[in-house]
C-alpha cells in the first residue's frame, strides 16, 4: 500500500512478449518479481496449452497463482497455530518450573550446613 512518502514505481515491462506500462507502489525489485512470476506462469501454461487464446492463458494463470496464494495462506495459518500451541506449552512448563524454585530455595535455606551434597 502506498504511503505519502513512498514514490510510485513506473516501468515498461514484458509479459508473454507483450509490453505493458505499469505503476506500482511495491518498488522496483518487488514489482519485477511479480512481473517475472506472472510471465513465467503464463509461459508455463502456453507451453502446456499452445493453442489457448492469450486472454484464457491470463485467466488460467491468475487462477493458478491465486491457488498458490490460498495454499500459502493455509500453510501460514497452520504454522501460526502450531507456534501458538508451542508457546502455550512452553508457558505451562515455565509455570510448572517456577513453582519448583521456592521449594528448592526453602530446602537450601533449611538444610544443615554441616552436611554437604
Task: For the structure shown, list the relevant keywords.
mainly alpha; two-stranded antiparallel ribbon; 117 residues; 67% helix; elongated
Polypeptide structure, described:
- The protein is mainly alpha-helical and 117 residues long.
- The chain contains 2 helices and 2 strands; from the N terminus they run E-E-H-H.
- It has one domain (9-109).
- The longest helix is centred in the last third of the chain and has 57 residues, at 54-110.
- The mean pLDDT is 89.
Low-confidence stretches: none
The SSE string, one letter per element, is EEHH
Number of structurally distinct domains: 1
Cα-to-Cα separation, first versus last residue:
64 Å
Mean pLDDT over the residues = 89
User: How are the strands of the biggest sheet laid out side by side?
Assistant: 1-2
Q: What's the total helix number?
A: 2
Structural class: mainly alpha
Strand content: 5-15%
Silhouette: elongated
Number of strands: 2
Radius of gyration: 29 Å
Give a short account of the largest sheet.
Answer: 2 strands, antiparallel
Q: Percentage of helical residues?
A: 55-70%
List the helices and strands and how they pair.
Elements: E1 9-15, E2 18-24, H1 28-48, H2 54-110
Antiparallel strand pairs: 1-2
Helix pairs in contact: 1-2
Summed up:
This protein has 117 residues and is mainly α.
